[in-house]
């Protein structure tokens, strides 16, 4: 759904499909030649091996869901992973996982109805979700090997939108989100380097995005109790807990207790 209200906003299954392959290639490039025993600071307790195995496994599982056009919640997450016999085979295995995904994309109508755990009950949900699962963990790999993650601003803004749209549906695996309740308090997240403005309202029965008017009158018609703004890539990493809102990358205003409550309970 377009929440930026700007013609430059781009979010299509075709772009998501291509970006899965691109981000996986960047991931593979980051870990090739590195020790897979290297700790991943942004995923405490994980090594690069854990990170690679998790990402490739998710790609293969989502691909299975797409090929099966699942219509109800799966009872098992067991899929054929074809894990390599030794650690040095894992970069190539991750690359092969993206090839499995590409085959599933080619065989799937993105508009096909499917069971999903999130907001959009179509196959395109899983393609988009696979992209941001891959992209964020590619950033984790960069961090682990001492690189500064570089994320395309358009994709990053799309990722912020995807996160905020789906978070209200994530309680089954992100139980703290059940505590995101309130009495109409609002939080605004705004990009400073491209179009992107999201307003979240906390209600007694839950929380979710407010559908705003045009980008020009958003602040006037929907003033927020607290605001966080920064570059799109930084906002995406903030959403996933890879950056803290106290970082110099962000400007925050308004109710700090409300922001503390949000970030303490919005873990994905």
Order of helices and strands: HHHHHEEEHEHEH
Proportion of residues in helical segments: 40-55%
Task: Summarize the main sheet.
Answer: 5 strands, mixed
Distance between the termini: 20 Å
The appropriate CATH architecture of the largest domain is Up-down Bundle
Shape: globular
Question: What structural category do the secondary elements indicate?
Answer: alpha+beta
Using only C-alpha atoms, the radius of gyration works out to 19 Å
CATH topology of the largest domain: Four Helix Bundle (Hemerythrin (Met), subunit A)
**Tally the helices: what do you get?**
8
Which whole number gives the mean pLDDT? 93
Strand order of the largest sheet: 3-2-1-4-5
Describe the structure.
The chain has 268 residues and is of the alpha+beta class. The protein has 8 helices and 5 strands. It has helices at 13-31, 48-68, 90-106, 123-144, 153-166, 218-221, 232-239, 256-265, and strands spanning 186-191, 197-203, 206-209, 226-230, 251-254. A 5-stranded mixed β-sheet has the order 3-2-1-4-5. Helix 2 (48-68) runs parallel beside helix 3 and helix 2 packs antiparallel against helix 4. The chain is globular, with a radius of gyration of 19 Å. Mean pLDDT is 93; it is low at 1-8.
